[in-house]
C-alpha cells in the first residue's frame, strides 16, 4: 500500500506543473458517503454531488463496512455522471481524476480508487491519490482561497480529532490528536445510548437546542493539558449519570454533553493558535457542522483577534469537492500518483513533526 504522492512510478500523463485552471474530477468513498465533484483551479466548484448511505446504515446503528462497499459500487457511476452533468463538462475537459486513498474503510476506499484510476487511464489524464484528512483541511480553501498561514485547523470528524498547524501548502504539524474516541464517535455513541438514532452528531445538535447545557457538570477531559483529546471517559460519565438518574431529561443530557465536548475543543484550539502565533483558526470535518462549536469558535476568534474560518456545513461533512481541491495542490507539489498506488485504511496526515 502506498501513500498519495509517494515514490511510485507516475501515471500515464505526468505533468509536474498543471495549468492553474485545471479541472479535476474528485471522488470520495472513504466511509458512507458516495461523492463526486468537479472543481476548477482548486477552488471553483462546478458541481458537488453527495449520496449519503445514512438510511441504509441507520437500522444497524452505525456503518457496516461490507454494506458500505457494495453501496459505493452501485452508487458511484450515477453519482459521477450527475456531477459531470451538473458541472456542464464532458470528459475531454477533465484534466485529472482524484480519489481519496485513505484513511477509511478499505473496501469502500478501493471502490473509489479503482474507478478513478480507470477513468484516468481511459481519458489519458493524471490520477491523484488524496489523503482524506488533507482533503478536510482543503475544504477551507474552497470557500476562502486567500487564507494565509500560519493557521491552526481543528479537524473533528467521526474518525479523527486533531489540531493541525498549517504552515503552508502541504506543510502540516500535528499538534495534538485524540488518545481514544474521536469527537464524532463520542457524539454517535452518546446519541445511540440516549436513543437518538444515527448519525448521532446532528441528533444531539438538534435535541440540545431544547436542553440546559449547565444542567449536568460533565467532566472536561484533559482541559488545560497539552493538545491531545480524550472523549471515552466523558461518554462513560454520560452513561453513569443516566443510570443513576433515570428520570433526567434527555435534552439536558445531550446539551450538557455537547457543552463539555465543545468547551474542550475550543479551549485547546485557542491555545494551539496562540502557541504558533496563528492568524487564523479553521474548522474541518463532520463535527465542524455542530451549531454550538461554530458559535463558540466564532466568539473566541473575535476575542483573540483571529480570522475564523468555518466552511459551510456541506463542506464540513464528507464530500468530493474537498478531494478535488486537495488534489489540485498535491498535483502541483508532487505530480501524479502512480497507478500502482493502493488504498491505505490507516493513512496519516503527512506531518513535519513525527507524531
Ligand atoms: O467528516 P465526516 O462526515 O466523516 C468522517 O470522516 O468521519 O464526519 C462524520 C461525523 C459523525 O460522527 C457525525 O455524527 C458528526 O460528524 N457530525 C456532527 C454534526 N454533523 C455531523 N457532530 C456534531 N454536530 C453536528 N451537527
Ligand atoms: Zn471525513
Overall description:
It contains 11 helices and 10 strands. It is an alpha/beta fold and 355 residues long. It has 2 domains: 13-138 and 316-334, Nucleotidyltransferase, domain 5, CATH 3.30.420; 149-278, Nucleotidyltransferase, domain 5, CATH 3.30.420.40. Helix 5 (183-193) packs parallel to helix 7 (232-244). 54% of the residues are buried. Mean pLDDT is 91; it is low at 1-16. The structure holds 5'-O-[(R)-(carboxyoxy)(hydroxy)phosphoryl]adenosine (KG4) and zinc ion (ZN).
Tally of discrete structural domains: 2
Helical fraction equals 40-55%
CATH architecture classification name of the largest domain: 2-Layer Sandwich
Beta fraction? 15-25%
Order of helices and strands: EEEHHEHEHEEEHHHHEHEHH
Indicate the CATH class of the largest domain. Alpha Beta
C-alpha-based Rg, rounded: 20 Å
Give every kind of bound small molecule, once each.
5'-O-[(R)-(carboxyoxy)(hydroxy)phosphoryl]adenosine, zinc ion
The number of strands is: 10
The strand line-up of the biggest sheet is 3-2-1-4-5
Mean of pLDDT: 91
CATH topology of the largest domain: Nucleotidyltransferase, domain 5
What would you call the structural class? alpha/beta
Shape: globular
Distance separating the two termini: 20 Å
- The tally of helices reads 11
How would you name the CATH homologous superfamily of the largest domain?
A: ATPase, nucleotide binding domain
Weakly predicted, low-confidence segments: 1-16
Biggest beta sheet summary: 5 strands, mixed
Amino acid at each position: 500500500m502506498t501513500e498519495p504522492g509517494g515514490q511510485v512510478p507516475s501515471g500515464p500523463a505526468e505533468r509536474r506543473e498543471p495549468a492553474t485552471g485545471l479541472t479535476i474530477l474528485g471522488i470520495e468513498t472513504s466511509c458512507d458517503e458516495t461523492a463526486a465533484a468537479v472543481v476548477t483551479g482548486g477552488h471553483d466548484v462546478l458541481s458537488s454531488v453527495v449520496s449519503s448511505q445514512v438510511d441504509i446504515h441507520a437500522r444497524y446503528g452505525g456503518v457496516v463496512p461490507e454494506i458500505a462497499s457494495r453501496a459505493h459500487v452501485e452508487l458511484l457511476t450515477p453519482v459521477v455522471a450527475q456531477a459531470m452533468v451538473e458541472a456542464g463538462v464532458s470528459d475531454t475537459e477533465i484534466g485529472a481524476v482524484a480519489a481519496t486513498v485513505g484513511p477509511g474503510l478499505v473496501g469502500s476506499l478501493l471502490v473509489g480508487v479503482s474507478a478513478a484510476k480507470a477513468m484516468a487511464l481511459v481519458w489519458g489524464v493524471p490520477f491523484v491519490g488524496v489523503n482524506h484528512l488533507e482533503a478536510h483541511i482543503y475544504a477551507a480553501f474552497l470557500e476562502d482561497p486567500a487564507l494565509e498561514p500560519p493557521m491552526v485547523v481543528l479537524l473533528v470528524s467521526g474518525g479523527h480529532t486533531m489540531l493541525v498547524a498549517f504552515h503552508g501548502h502541504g506543510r502540516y504539524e500535528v499538534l495534538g490528536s485524540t488518545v481514544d474516541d474521536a469527537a464524532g464517535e463520542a457524539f454517535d455513541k452518546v446519541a445511540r445510548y440516549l436513543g437518538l438514532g444515527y448519525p448521532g452528531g446532528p441528533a444531539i445538535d438538534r435535541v440540545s437546542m431544547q436542553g440546559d447545557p449547565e444542567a449536568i457538570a460533565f467532566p472536561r477531559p484533559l482541559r488545560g493539558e497539552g493538545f491531545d483529546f480524550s472523549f471515552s471517559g466523558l461518554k462513560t460519565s454520560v452513561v453513569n449519570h443516566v443510570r443513576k438518574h433515570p428520570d433526567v431529561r434527555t435534552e439536558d443530557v445531550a446539551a450538557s454533553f455537547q457543552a463539555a465536548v465543545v468547551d474542550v475543543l475550543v479551549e485547546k484550539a485557542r491555545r494551539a493558535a496562540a502557541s504558533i502565533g496563528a492568524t487564523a483558526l479553521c474548522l474541518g470535518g463532520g463535527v465542524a457542522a455542530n451549531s454550538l462549536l461554530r458559535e463558540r469558535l466564532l466568539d473566541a476568534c473575535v476575542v483573540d483577534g483571529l480570522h475564523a474560518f468555518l466552511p459551510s456545513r456541506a463542506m464540513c461533512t464528507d464530500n468530493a469537492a474537498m478531494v478535488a481541491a486537495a488534489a489540485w495542490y498535491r498535483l502541483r507539489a508532487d505530480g501524479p500518483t502512480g497507478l500502482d498506488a493502493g488504498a491505505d485504511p490507516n493513512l496519516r496526515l503527512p506531518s513535519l513533526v513525527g507524531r
